[in-house]
């Protein structure tokens, strides 16, 4: 299995697992919490069929990547992404981040610039700034995130069960756009993630990405469902068009957070149309 080394802990390599398939212009897909790169399977299939090179990877602490005790902040996540891009010597890249992965897109460009980047995609993103503050009244009360951390500390498996119900809006789409088998598979992927990473990633969601997205000049696509219960559109992606000049937004009607699965056809159509421009 291919890995790239991104650091060390106690003289042991910290490695990211990645997959690199197809030919053509490269698209790097960055997964959301608490899943892994395989969560992009419906987008990967569409992109490969359309003639793109598709790279997915598992964030540290998740999937088949190493599970170190530290590094669950966006400066480190962006450095990990940079190590992967340099390892593969990628240029002309479209960076596409889902949910938490949108933070890597923003922080990577904010920190490393756009020399390797051709386009950017934010799907159901945590950017630009989720927490409510005096200068960010559209955000979510910090008590919500404190409550999530309390639930994870108490019983992360029980937390995952409820999380995925809202991730997929299962009460609406169970039996039509999502099966119990998908919910079970997502639960199993989450359950195999690092317990420490599962908790430590939550404070990272509160990062202020406004200075990062202000540096984005490449063509940018934002896609989000208008029924997102995990990161409500009005607190997240719905604000990005005003912050990223020339960006375009596609709102998926009735879409939950997990549009990459429940509304894959709609997301794929938006993504491919954007890439072909």
TrEMBL record:
Domain of life: Bacteria
InterPro entries associated with the record: AB_hydrolase, AB_hydrolase_1, AB_hydrolase_fold, Epox_hydrolase-like
Gene3D superfamilies in the cross-refs: alpha/beta hydrolase (3.40.50.1820)
Entry GO MF terms: catalytic activity
AB hydrolase-1 domain residues: 26-264
Pfam families cross-referenced by the UniProt entry: Abhydrolase_1
Family recorded in the similarity comment: Belongs to the AB hydrolase superfamily. Bacterial non-heme haloperoxidase / perhydrolase family.
Cited PANTHER family: HYDROLASE, ALPHA/BETA FOLD FAMILY PROTEIN (PTHR43433), NON-HEME CHLOROPEROXIDASE-RELATED (PTHR43433:SF4)
Protein name as it appears in the record: Arylesterase
Organism, scientific name: Deinococcus aquiradiocola
Species lineage: Bacteria, Thermotogati, Deinococcota, Deinococci, Deinococcales
């Amino acid at each position: 299995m291919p890995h790239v080394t991104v650091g060390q802990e106690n003289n042991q390599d910290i490695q990211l697992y990645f997959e690199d398939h197809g030919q053509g212009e490269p698209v790097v897909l960055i997964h959301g919490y608490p899943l892994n790169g395989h969560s992009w399977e419906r987008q990967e299939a569409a992109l490969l069929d359309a003639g793109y090179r598709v790279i997915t990877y598992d964030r540290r602490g998740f999937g088949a990547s190493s599970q170190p005790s530290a590094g669950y902040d966006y400066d480190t996540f962006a450095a990990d992404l940079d190590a992967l891009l340099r390892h593969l010597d990628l240029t002309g890249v479209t960076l596409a981040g889902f949910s938490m992965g949108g933070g890597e897109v923003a922080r990577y460009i904010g920190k490393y610039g756009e020399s390797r980047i051709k386009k950017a995609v934010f799907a159901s993103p945590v950017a630009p700034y989720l927490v409510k503050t005096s200068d960010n009244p559209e955000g979510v009360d910090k008590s919500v995130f404190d409550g999530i951390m309390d639930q994870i500390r108490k019983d992360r498996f029980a937390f995952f069960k409820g999380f995925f119900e809202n991730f997929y809006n299962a009460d609406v789409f169970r039996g039509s756009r999502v099966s119990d088998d998908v919910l079970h598979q997502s639960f199993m992927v989450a359950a195999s993630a690092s317990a420490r990473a599962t908790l430590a990633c939550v404070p990272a969601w509160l990062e202020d990405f406004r200075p990062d997205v202000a540096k984005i000049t490449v063509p940018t696509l934002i896609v989000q469902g208008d029924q997102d219960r995990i990161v409500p559109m009005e607190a997240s992606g719905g604000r990005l068009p005003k912050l990223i000049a020339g960006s375009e937004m596609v709102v998926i009607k009735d879409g939950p957070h997990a549009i990459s699965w429940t509304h894959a056809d709609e997301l794929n159509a938006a993504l491919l149309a954007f890439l072909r421009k």
